């Protein structure tokens, strides 16, 4: 998926429009029997979901509407995503916080119970193993969600360090929530529609908040977060109740909230300037280079204590050699690996994600450039299929975020 889910979705749309369904099946539906399926799979298919392989799963890239229409509808009304391919897990025990702080950059101890944050798992060189949303449920219970494509390496990494930690007397254990599914409800109608399905007062729950509560008559883990830049929620629910909840959400929205696939999810997160692991974050990219300095707690900056802290804290002091930035550009939409040059034709970096913004009606991209050339307004050239196109460094997010925070 490194070329961009939006691009893949457009390719499928063109093929289907041309009636070349056999070619689509050959190219995208190969080895279907080997792919894992979420419990919502049949519901996707019944609702016109175009299923493609993604991180070992068969997932909907889009539905009957276009990726552009889906993106706009999320911003105007709302979207419901099945993200059950992602891996939720809990760490429990009185030492779960100090254990996790050895592996991530966040100030986990400083989180109030029922709140969370984006963080990064780092390696010994300060590079990103994965990004994750972590929540302190209680002082002895941490809930986190990791990316589907990183599941195996993340779990192996956590398990290796947990064994060493427990061997020294640390009290920590884990549970992988394979018995649960995960739905993401995003957009302006997310809160009012979800409020119909729970007695809890969602107006008192802010961005990053977490609660265990009944939704549609079933106990769920509810996190006010998402991957679109919009207000919204991620709902962890026992798998046997996931389809019923999806149906209830769509029904309560009176058709305004739509099932939405990975294609629009990619364009939404790109417009919000959010990283996609495997494109904008890699094992050789540090949080400082990725523009995630804000995710390193003040205490962690002073104390370190996480993997690769020496490299990261040195970059904090001296500045990184490369930086993640946004771009507007002319010509064809930039794609992953497009070369970035300065006005003199010298290589200064590479695009990591790019596409056409449905909301802004212009090309947008994320990439890395040499420090000193990262300031907004810096003119660049972006090379696409051997041709040079005008570009300019711009601030992110491209589309203003609408997270629900205290006024």
Automatic annotation (TrEMBL):
Mitochondrion as UniProt keyword: yes
Domain GCVT N-terminal: 40-298
Domain Aminomethyltransferase C-terminal, first and last residues per copy: 323-399
Gene Ontology MF terms in the entry: aminomethyltransferase activity; methyltransferase activity; transaminase activity
Key words, A-Z: Aminotransferase, Methyltransferase, Mitochondrion, Transferase, Transit peptide
Catalytic activity: N(6)-[(R)-S(8)-aminomethyldihydrolipoyl]-L-lysyl-[protein] + (6S)-5,6,7,8-tetrahydrofolate = N(6)-[(R)-dihydrolipoyl]-L-lysyl-[protein] + (6R)-5,10-methylene-5,6,7,8-tetrahydrofolate + NH4(+)
Keyword Transferase: yes
Gene Ontology biological process terms, A to Z: glycine catabolic process; methylation
Binding site for substrate: 234
Subcellular location: Mitochondrion
GO CC, alphabetical: glycine cleavage complex; mitochondrion
EC number(s) from the headed UniProt entry: 2.1.2.10
InterPro entries with a match to the protein in the record: GcvT, GcvT/YgfZ/DmdA, GcvT/YgfZ_C, GcvT_C, GCVT_N, TrmE/GcvT-like
Subunit structure: The glycine cleavage system is composed of four proteins: P, T, L and H.
Similarity comment: Belongs to the GcvT family.
The protein's role, per its UniProt record: The glycine cleavage system catalyzes the degradation of glycine.
Protein name: Aminomethyltransferase
Protein source organism: Glycine soja (Wild soybean)
């Amino acid at each position: 998926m490194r070329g961009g889910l939006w691009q893949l979705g457009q390719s499928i749309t063109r093929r289907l429009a041309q009636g070349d369904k056999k070619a689509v099946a050959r190219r995208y539906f190969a080895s279907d029997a080997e792919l894992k399926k979420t419990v919502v799979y049949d519901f996707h298919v019944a609702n016109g979901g175009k299923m493609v392989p993604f991180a070992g799963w068969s997932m909907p890239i889009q539905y009957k509407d276009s990726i552009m229409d889906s993106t706009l509808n999320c911003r105007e009304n709302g979207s419901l995503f099945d993200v059950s391919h992602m891996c939720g897990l809990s760490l429990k025990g009185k030492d779960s916080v100090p254990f996790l702080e050895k592996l991530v950059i966040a100030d986990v101890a400083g989180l109030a119970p029922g709140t969370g944050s984006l963080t990064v798992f780092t390696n010994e060189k300060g590079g990103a193993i994965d990004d994750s949303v972590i929540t302190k449920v209680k002082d002895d219970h941490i809930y986190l969600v990791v990316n589907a494509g990183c599941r195996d390496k993340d779990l192996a990494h956590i398990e290796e360090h947990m064994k060493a930690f427990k061997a020294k007397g640390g009290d920590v254990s884990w549970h992988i929530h394979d018995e649960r599914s995960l739905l993401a409800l995003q957009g302006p109608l997310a809160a009012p529609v979800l409020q119909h399905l729970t007695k809890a007062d969602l107006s008192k729950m802010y961005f990053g908040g977490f609660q265990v509560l009944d939704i549609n008559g079933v106990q769920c883990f509810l996190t006010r977060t998402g991957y679109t830049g919009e207000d919204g929620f991620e709902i962890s629910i026992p798998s046997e109740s996931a389809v019923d909840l999806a149906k209830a959400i769509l029904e309560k929205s009176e058709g305004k909230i739509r099932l939405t696939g990975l294609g629009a999810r990619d364009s939404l997160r790109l417009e919000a300037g959010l990283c996609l692991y495997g494109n904008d974050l890699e094992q050789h990219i540090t949080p400082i280079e990725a523009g995630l300095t804000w995710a390193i707690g003040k205490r962690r900056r002073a104390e370190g204590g996480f993997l690769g802290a020496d490299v990261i804290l040195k970059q904090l002091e001296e500045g990184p050699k490369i930086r993640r930035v946004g771009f507007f550009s002319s010509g064809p939409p930039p794609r992953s690996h497009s070369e970035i040059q300065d006005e003199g034709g010298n290589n200064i970096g590479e695009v990591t994600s790019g596409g056409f913004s449905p909301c802004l009606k212009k090309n947008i991209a994320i990439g890395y450039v040499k420090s000193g050339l990262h300031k907004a307004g810096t003119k660049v050239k972006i090379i696409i299929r051997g041709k040079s196109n005008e570009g300019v460094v711009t601030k992110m997010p491209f589309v203003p975020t609408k997270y629900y925070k205290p006024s």
